[in-house]
Write a structure and sequence with these properties.
The chain has 283 residues and is mostly helical. The chain has one domain. It is 76% helix and 0% strand. It has 14 helices and no strands. The longest helix is centred in the C-terminal third of the chain and has 27 residues. The protein is globular, with a radius of gyration of 19 Å. The N and C termini lie far apart (45 Å).
Length: 283
C-alpha cells in the first residue's frame, strides 16, 4: 500500500509538471511549496501593495494582487494563498483603526456582504473568473470616469443608503470570496459619502476583516487550504506587517485631497488591470 500511494503521488507530480510545461506556467515543487522564481517575483510586490492599501493608502489598490499572482498560478489558488496573509494584515489593521469606523454603514453593509459570501461559496466552482474580472473592473472604471467627467458629483456627499449599501456590499462579498477583489464595489458605495479619510479606511478595514475571517470555513470546505497553499503563504507572511506599516505611514502623512486623488487613480488602475485580464482570458 505504501508503494502504491507513493506511485500515485509521483504520478500526480509528473502530471502537474507536464501541465506546467504544456501551458507555460512555472513548475511547482512536489515538496508542497511553490518554488518558482516568477511566482515570488510577482507575489512579493503584490502582497506589499495589498498591505499598503489595507494600511490606509489607496483603497482598491489591493485588488491588483490576485491578477498579478494569476500570471503564475490559477486564480482560486492565488486567492487561497492570499487569505492567510490578509488575515494577518487584518489583525494589524483592526488594532490601528480599532476606534475609527462608521457603525451606521457597517450595519447596512454586513448583511449584504454575508449574502455575497454565500453566493460566492455556492457558485465558486461554476463562476468564470474572467467574467468576474470584467465585471469588477468595469464597475471601478465606470465609477472613476463618472466622478472625473462630472466634477459636481465629487463635491456632493451622499448619505448612507440601505438599497445602495446592500447591493454594493453583496457584490463586494461575492467577488471578495471568488478573487479577493471586493475593494472596488465597496468603494463605489463609500467614496461618494466623502467620509473623513481615517473613518473611510477604518470602515473598510473592519468590513474586510469580518469578511476574510468569515471565509475561513468555506475555503476549508472547498479544499483551498492545501499544504502547498498554506506553506507558501507562511513563507510570504512577513510581508504582511511590512506592507501594513507602509500604508499607515503614508496615511498619516497625506492630506484628504491628495488621498482621494490617489484613491481614484489607483481604483482606475486596478479596474483597468482586471478588465485587461478578463478580456485576455476570454480571447
Amino acid at each position: 500500500m505504501a508503494l502504491t500511494s507513493r506511485a500515485l503521488a509521483l504520478r500526480r507530480c509528473c502530471l502537474r509538471r507536464r501541465h506546467a510545461v504544456s501551458t507555460g506556467l512555472p513548475l511547482v515543487s512536489c515538496a508542497r511549496v511553490i518554488t518558482a522564481p516568477l511566482f515570488y517575483a510577482l507575489a512579493i510586490p503584490a502582497f506589499l501593495i495589498t498591505g499598503i492599501s489595507k494600511g490606509g493608502f489607496g483603497s482598491g489598490l489591493g485588488s491588483v494582487a490576485v491578477p498579478m499572482l494569476a500570471l503564475a498560478v490559477p486564480v482560486p489558488q492565488a486567492a487561497a494563498i492570499m487569505l492567510p496573509l490578509l488575515l494577518a494584515m487584518d489583525l494589524v489593521g483592526l488594532w490601528a483603526y480599532r476606534a475609527t469606523w462608521d457603525r451606521t454603514n457597517m450595519r447596512i453593509m454586513l448583511p449584504g456582504a454575508m449574502v455575497g459570501l454565500v453566493l460566492g461559496y455556492l457558485s465558486f466552482r461554476y463562476l468564470d473568473e474572467h467574467w468576474i474580472r470584467l465585471l469588477v473592473g468595469g464597475i471601478a472604471i465606470g465609477f472613476v470616469l463618472n466622478v472625473w467627467l462630472r466634477p459636481g458629483v465629487a463635491g456632493q456627499a451622499a448619505r448612507p443608503s440601505w438599497t445602495r449599501g446592500s447591493f454594493w456590499s453583496c457584490l463586494s462579498g461575492l467577488v471578495s470570496f471568488v478573487a479577493n477583489a471586493g475593494g472596488p464595489p465597496l468603494s463605489v458605495y463609500l467614496l461618494p459619502q466623502r467620509l473623513d479619510k481615517t473613518l473611510f479606511v477604518g470602515t473598510t478595514v473592519m468590513f474586510f476583516a469580518i469578511l476574510n475571517y468569515a471565509k475561513i470555513l468555506p475555503y476549508w470546505w472547498l479544499g483551498q487550504f492545501s499544504g502547498e497553499n498554506v506553506l507558501t503563504a507562511l513563507i510570504l507572511l512577513p510581508l504582511a506587517p511590512i506592507g501594513m506599516w507602509l500604508g499607515v505611514w503614508l496615511h498619516d502623512r497625506v492630506n484628504d485631497g491628495v488621498f482621494y486623488r490617489w484613491v481614484y487613480i489607483l481604483l482606475l488602475v486596478s479596474g483597468a488591470k482586471l478588465v485587461w485580464d478578463g478580456v485576455a482570458g476570454l480571447i
